[in-house]
Design goal:
Blueprint (H helix, E strand, L loop, with lengths): L1 H15 L2 H28 L2 H11 L5 E6 L13 E2 L2 E5 L3 H9 L5 E5 L3 H4 L2 E4 L17 H13 L5 H8 L23 H34 L2 H6 L4 H37 L12 H28 L3 H12 L4 H4 L1 H6 L4 H8 L4 H10 L5 H29 L9 H10 L1
Parallel strand pairs: 1-3, 1-4
Antiparallel strand pairs: 2-3, 4-5
Helix pairs in contact: 1-10, 2-10, 8-10, 8-11, 8-12, 8-16, 10-11, 11-12, 11-16, 11-17, 15-16
Length: 426
């Protein structure tokens, strides 16, 4: 155990200080930070109605935003009522010149001039001050479009339709979807929790990237040490099992750290984004302990399976190029669920989805897809994880046998018959 601990510590320190690991680990937090910052800047530059008016209300002690308008339409005036709309109050000014003067004196926040033939053309001109910086590439600022729309609709139709119907002029409908069976009863099929779906989707992507980076480090390290004959020196002081297990644990810890950093950065980014714009509450909820435990289990068992197989490939390979070619046989099957994602999303409880959930190579990604849409029950989840755990243990046992038999063999790759004989005989 002392040897395993030393190797684990060494592999962990070596991996986390590797430039490629630092870049891949930092890439997601940096991208999330840039995305949030960019969205914040975009929102501040193009913020509309509600946000702008709320900010203006805070600055003015919760006063309504004052919007000036010029109404040259023939008597009777089209816009002589319903002045308070969407956090703003519309103030009529006699002419565009008077409106510009009020705009310059900051007595109003915006000025709109209705065309004389507004009924026929619907034309409205917004008059801006050139020094406000709203040129070709300057910020447009708040458009107050919701307030203007409500003001126009209220004045044109509020007196022509029943009061309860006025709101439907502004927002004609709010569409929701409900699924029912052939008998008309509400469908009790798989539900969809957007927050849970986002958590498992991010966890699945993190698993793929992190596991294959970590298992790739395992493969490269073994083959390079074998090619450089460093392995001979290591095995003179450390047993093969201790060396493999130490590498396995050390690189596994780096992968888990990497996935935790990615998930934490995305979570923090979502929370910060929630302070800028309205985000569905489901997206900002913290995943349950059960979901976190399932994601961690899939990661640990998935890593154990692929890293063990990568170690086996490294043990039997004679060069790094050969090892990378053989490793495709291990890596490619993990992406099979992505090829059938359309079927998995449409038939998450179908035969294909259930079969892929219990095949070790495809189980992690398939599990995350089905868990994201709540199409995997507790018993099925436990069964799939149990199969994956047994497969990972078997892969580790196989890797140790091949590790002991072929790690110091050079020049010729063993045949399948030779490997089977050595694995069975030990």
């Amino acid at each position: 155990m002392s040897s395993v601990r030393i190797v684990t510590r060494h592999e962990f320190r070596t991996a986390v200080t590797r430039l490629s690991y630092i870049i891949t680990t930092a890439a997601v937090p940096v991208l999330v930070a840039l995305a949030v910052a960019g969205f914040a800047i975009f929102t501040l530059v193009t913020r509309d109605d509600g946000d702008a008016e709320a900010a203006a209300g805070v600055e003015r002690g919760a006063e309504l935003t004052r919007l000036g308008y010029v109404d040259p339409t023939e008597a009777p005036s089209l816009f002589d009522g319903h002045h308070e709309q969407a956090g703003a109050v519309f103030v009529q000014v006699p002419s565009q010149e008077a409106g510009v003067a009020a705009l310059t004196a900051a007595e109003i926040d915006a000025l709109f001039v209705f065309a004389e033939d507004f009924v026929e053309t619907g034309r409205v001109v917004r008059v801006r001050l050139a020094e406000d910086g709203g040129g070709l590439f300057g910020p447009e600022g708040p458009t107050y479009s919701s307030a203007l729309r409500a003001f126009v609709l209220s004045n044109l139709f509020a007196d022509e339709v029943p009061a309860p119907t006025v709101e439907r002029l502004r927002l004609p409908y709010w569409l929701v979807t409900e699924e029912v069976g052939a008998d008309g009863a509400t469908d009790d099929g798989p539900g969809f929790d957007i927050g849970r779906a986002a958590f498992f989707a991010i966890a699945g992507v993190s698993l793929l990237v992190s596991v294959f980076f970590s298992s790739g480090y395992m493969l490269n390290a073994l083959v390079e040490e074998k090619e450089n004959r460093v392995m001979e020196v290591l095995l003179s002081s450390v047993k093969p099992e201790a060396l493999l297990l130490g590498k396995f644990l050390g690189l596994g810890a780096t992968g888990l750290l990497q996935m935790a950093a990615w998930l934490a950065s995305v979570g923090i980014g979502a929370l910060v984004l929630g302070l800028i714009v309205d985000i569905p509450a489901d997206l900002l909820t913290v995943p349950g302990v059960g979901d976190i435990a399932i994601a961690a289990a899939y990661f640990l068992f998935g890593y154990a399976l692929f890293a063990s197989l990568m170690a086996a490939v490294g043990a039997i390979s004679t060069s790094l190029r050969e090892a990378n070619q053989i490793s495709a046989l291990v890596i490619v099957p993990a992406f099979i669920p992505l090829w059938f994602n359309f079927i998995l999303f449409n038939e998450p409880e179908g035969t294909l989805a259930r079969v892929l959930s219990f095949i070790p190579f495809t189980a992690p990604v398939t599990g995350f897809i089905r868990l994201a849409i709540d199409a995997m029950g507790p018993l099925e989840t436990v069964g799939a994880l149990l199969v994956l755990a047994i497969s990972a243990a078997g892969a580790l046992w196989l890797a140790m046998r091949l590790f002991r038999a072929y790690l110091l063999m050079y020049g010729k790759r063993p045949t399948l018959k030779d490997m089977a004989r050595n694995v069975v005989s030990g």
